[in-house]
Model the fold of this input.
Amino acid sequence: MSVSAAGRTGGGRLKGVSLVVGGAALFAAGLFVVATGTGLSGLLGMRVETFGAIECRDTRTSKGQTVWHCFGEAEGVGRERISFADHDGRNDPETITATQLTEGGRWFAHSSMIVGYGMIPLLLGAGTAAWGGYRVREAGRRGPLRGAEGPRRGAESL
Done:
């Protein structure tokens, strides 16, 4: 590994690849959450149901916040709790479409809140992967034996 006059190490390509891989993983996680929130998760083979007979009730937390717990019924599913349901606090929605991520697991409502939360890792992952790609490209331009000041002395004999 070479050290340039500015004190930078020559591991830019490895760091760049790490950023690309990490960014891609973060992007995939965000895409998964966005797909769940929009209902596209059905295309990924997950179970999607529309629930009726919705009943929501508020619960106060120890910190004084209000949390809505919504329950609904669907054919063949029975009465289930639905997480992250959009609720205005006055009227219960008529129907809620939700995705079950794992068999017997929680139901997550298709809502703008989930899409918003999913956009955070999606955008951070895209930015991180792009920055890693830039670092890989720049490390390739400098070459393996050159830093900012050019070839090292004695590099010709290697």
Summary: The mean pLDDT is 82. The first helix runs from residue 12 to 38.
